[in-house]
Amino acid sequence: MKAEDLMPTGNVLLTTFAGYIANQAPSAFFVLEDFLNKRTDIKRICEIGTAQGGTTVLFGLHMFKNEGVTLTFDNAGTFNSKWRELSVLLGIEFSNLDVFKEEGTNKLKEFVQRDGVSLLFCDGGNKVQEFNSFAPFLKSGDVIMAHDYRHEIKLNQLNKEVFEQFSFHYQEDFDSLKTRILCMVKK
Prior knowledge:
The chain has 187 residues and is an alpha/beta fold.
């Protein structure tokens, strides 16, 4: 693989976290860090779309600090052996199951429905379907985020009955730095 193969196209910047590529705007890490420091009650993070694992490391560090757990799904992720070593140290569980197939859906559902506050981070290949399919599994007080808000996922694409179960949560923080992250909490 050549360096140019890793470069994003368009106006997206190549961002890293702890040396691992993260497909987020650089500003997203400031806001995610602030959010997770405020919401220490979150005890589990389920991420759809590991990609190269940079955002997963951020989530794993916070869950390690707060004695929580991280589960990340990706059936096409590209990570090296050092990332896998780090994920084991941080207690990150990696799954290559397809979340839209029964086994993956069941694993995700069981994970987010455990006692305590869950955060579901939709950043896979179909954020609209991820939000509409999995948001109903969340409990009152749980948080859902979706990356590429207003680009790959728009409010008018969300199932109305599902959307009405949520309210915006810290959205002004995410919008102020143009993170492209939607953040909502289940009522």
